[in-house]
Write a structure and sequence with these properties.
Helix content is 30%, strand content 24%. It has helices at 16-30, 41-45, 49-58, 69-77, 95-100, 110-123, 147-155, 179-197, 210-215, 237-245, 359-366, 370-375, and strands spanning 10-15, 35-39, 63-66, 84-86, 104-107, 127-132, 160-166, 204-206, 223-226, 259-264, 267-271, 276-277, 283-284, 289-294, 311-314, 317-322, 330-333, 345-352, 355-357, 383-386. It is an alpha/beta fold. The structure holds pyridoxal-5'-phosphate (PLP). Pyridoxal-5'-phosphate binds next to helix 9 and strand 9.
Length: 387
């Protein structure tokens, strides 16, 4: 049988050993009692939701977090029976599906509770909700001034079960100054106390994303929502620095990147000096130049901002991107790399020989963050699990 990757021009390799390493690292940090929920929204941050869901369950995760009801349904239909928290808004007309599939439903709108009340009464079913508390991110969440309404309402809707409360930090990964995060934590605890004291003593609490898991053990609570870290990427340089400051010296190898993005060269050509490469003629050769065509472009998720900025690895060496990145193609300079042939393997993200190109580097070159680099890799590109 021909191995899958010989059949493609571009593909993603997912390292099972790296993923297992990362998940065990986080499990060790949080202990056995805290629920380890893996965030697999956005096609598992571009890593491929089926592959990651399978590896996550094999290596000790407890549950999933996704953004949309469609992501949750895909997991269910693929046979994942673990709890799934839907963190984004569920259209009111689809709440019945969410109840029937026993999803964990996030609540930050009164209309959602009203509708769940009607649905669960009609179906004699239960809805498990996670109430999202506003603590200063001002994205999704209910304000302290609204607590009374929710408490009164939920006391009168016994089929709408308040399983958990949670919140999300605004800048925990953006800075080494954690005053605001501490303020949010304090606000959260105050709100939790009000809810508990008013007759909901058994409440799960969860507030930790990757950066919080790494930096603040007191955020682990009953469950964590582990996103970027499981994929072997740091939430930010600042988180890495803060983590090291907390006493961990050899931090570099703590997380292992899981994703490698590969492609093969689809054409090679010589271009004379003083000729231009690609659309807009933005790169002009200064010498006789060996150009390799790579079958990856911005529609595949390789940002057009990397035009004349990025590098790829060929034979373990860096080859610069020349000219503009096109929709499905780009050109790189391999003049200084001997013996390059048609269909040679190229690495866009990952290791080759002694060289490495990280998602963080691509993010720096194109003015964004590693989250965006990996989550925008087109989901049509095959994901292959390797050792
Ligand atoms: C995406 C997301 C997370 C995961 O954050 P990471 O920084 O990737 O760990 C956690 N909580 C919520 C609400 C999210 O939207």
């Amino acid at each position: 049988m021909v191995e899958q990757h010989y059949l493609n021009n571009t593909w993603i390799e997912i390292s099972e050993s790296a993923y297992e390493h990362n998940l065990k690292f986080f499990r060790k940090l949080i202990g056995e009692k805290t629920e380890l929920s893996v965030v697999v929204k956005a096609n598992a941050y571009g890593h491929g939701w089926q592959s990651i869901a399978r590896l996550a369950m094999k290596h000790g995760a407890d549950s999933f977090c996704v953004h949309s009801i469609d992501e949750a349904l895909r997991l269910r239909r693929a046979g994942f029976h673990q709890p799934i928290l839907i963190m984004g808004h569920i259209p009111l007309n689809r709440l019945e599906e969410a109840v029937q599939e026993k999803f964990r439903i996030v609540v930050f709108n009164r209309e959602t509770v009203e509708r769940l009340d009607q649905i669960t009464t009609r179906l004699s079913a239960l809805a498990r909700i996670h109430l999202k508390l506003e603590t200063g991110t001002y994205r999704q969440g209910i304000d302290a001034s609204e607590l009374d309404w929710y408490i009164t309402k939920l006391k009168n809707t016994p089929r709408v079960v308040l399983e958990a409360v949670y919140t999300h930090f605004a800048n925990i990964e953006d800075t080494t100054n954690h005053d605001y995060a501490n303020f949010q934590k304090y606000t959260f605890n105050q709100m939790v106390k009000i809810i508990k004291d008013s007759g909901f003593p058994i409440l799960k609490r969860h507030i930790a994303c990757t950066a919080a898991i790494l930096l603040f053990p007191d955020t682990h609570m009953d469950m964590v929502r582990l996103g970027i870290g499981q994929y072997g990427l740091w939430p930010s340089r600042e988180t890495f620095e803060s983590y090291k400051k907390n006493g961990e010296k050899n931090g570099e190898k703590l997380l292992l990147p899981v994703l490698t993005w590969k492609a093969r060269i689809t054409q090679l050509k010589w271009v004379d000096a003083e000729h231009t490469i690609g659309y807009g003629r933005t790169f002009k050769t200064t010498r006789k130049t060996r150009i390799a065509v790579i079958p990856v472009g911005y529609s595949d998720g390789y940002d057009r901002g990397l035009s004349n900025q990025g590098y790829v690895l060929v034979h373990g060496k860096r080859a610069p991107v020349r000219g503009r990145v096109c929709m499905n193609l780009m050109m790189v300079d391999v003049t200084d790399i001997p013996k390059v042939k048609l269909e040679d393997e190229v690495v866009l993200i990952g290791n080759q020989g002694k060289e490495q190109i990280t998602a963080d580097e691509l993010a720096n070159w194109s003015g964004t963050i590693n989250y965006e680099i990996v989550s925008r890799i087109n989901s049509d590109i095959p994901r292959i699990i390797v050792k």
